[in-house]
Amino acid sequence: MTTTAEQAFAAINEGDSITGTSFQPTRETIKRFAEASLDFNPLHFDDNFMDGDFGKTNFGGVIMHGMQNFALITRTLTDWLMERGGYHRRLETKWLKPVKPNDTITPTATVSEKRETDKGRWVLFDISVSNQNGDRVAVGQAMAEFPDTLPIRS
Amino acid sequence: MTSDPNPSFETDFWKDAGARQTWDEIIPGAPRETQPYTLTKEAIGDFAEAMGETNRLYFDEEYAKTTPYGGIIAPPTIHILLMFACTGTTDWMRSPGTINASQSWFYNIPARPGDVISMQGRALDRYMRKGRLFVIHDNVFTNQNDQVICSGRGWTIRPN
Question: How many domains does chain B have?
Fold first, then answer.
């Protein structure tokens, strides 16, 4: 029997938590991300450039694209939502710490609220990404809709 | 090999660096120069693979046709590619040392292969905080039918 979006929404509870697949960036994955996203900022490649200071900050080496982190969170959400008929509506993130080659980062999304509006069923998530030391490298919020019909154009 | 309908991309972000607006020169409210970008099935697949996506919806047309989406769609994060694809070498988002502090995105409908994507972008505000130079910008991506794909805001720390 096929589950409707309404049934899938009803089965979700505040406090439910999704842990995404961990990711370990390397110089190779960073290069791959740059080629696919066209973001060739030398922050992500150039060791000499990264020896310098950025205002008061010195990163001490190349860093992963922040948007790789954003993409990892998104994949965690969409993989979970799509099999339930949910639609990923919004993601807001703030980067707290740089991620460097050979760090391991893991995203977590926790249902913070469920809400129905005139025309929608909504699930809100608190987002957190931690590194191998348990430090939070990114935090944020996300929002998903469970519509009767997915928002795809005719 | 499939031909790419888009112009080749300059990967050296130092090129034209002197022609880009600095923090002092960026005018909040002024539109950024943009160009349309044609999204191909190949670009979607390549991007999705690099993002670590494994969902066949982004790669496999036969499978995608069996889903409620009715065909391949791009992952929501495709705007990461679109921002650079729709702007030129003098756009200030390419300034080496631009640091991403925060982003928020709202997704309206998915982008699809063959879509001709347009971008409207501008800085909204610039300010200093704790010794850093910030710019807030917003971007809206639409398809060839003027339907909004997604809209976003970002906070970047500008090189000094």
Answer: 1
Does A146 contact B at CB distance below 8 Å? no
Q: Which domain holds residue B81?
A: 30-157
pLDDT of residue B1: 46
Lowest mean pLDDT among A2-11, A102-111, B114-123: A2-11
Mean pLDDT over all residues of chain A? 94
Residue that wins the pLDDT comparison between B113 and B4: B113
Distance (Å) of CA B28 to CA A25, B143, B151: 35, 25, 18
For residue B100, being part of any structural domain is answered with yes
B159 contacts: CB under 8 Å, gap ≥ 6: A54, B22, B95, B96, B97, B98
Answer yes or no: is B91 within a domain: yes
SS3 of residue A61 by DSSP = coil
Q: What is the CATH number of domain A5-145?
A: 3.10.129.10
pLDDT tens by residue, B18-46: 999 999 999 999 999 999 999 999 999 99
CATH number for position B151: 3.10.129.10
Q: Is the pLDDT of residue B160 over 90?
A: no
ipTM of the complex: 0.95
Q: Inter-chain contact A152–B68, Cβ cutoff 8 Å?
A: yes
Nearest to B93 by CA among A67, A140, A139: A67
Q: How far is B132 from chain A (nearest CA, A)?
A: 7
DSSP A134-147: S-EEEEEEEEEE--
Q: Does A56 touch chain B (CB under 8 A)?
A: yes
3 state SS of A94: strand
> Number of A:B CB contacts under 8 A?
131
Residue B3 has pLDDT above 70, yes or no: no
The answer as to whether B21 is a domain residue is: no
Is B20 inside any structural domain?
Answer: no
Q: For A150, which of B69, B85, B97 is closest by C-beta distance?
A: B69
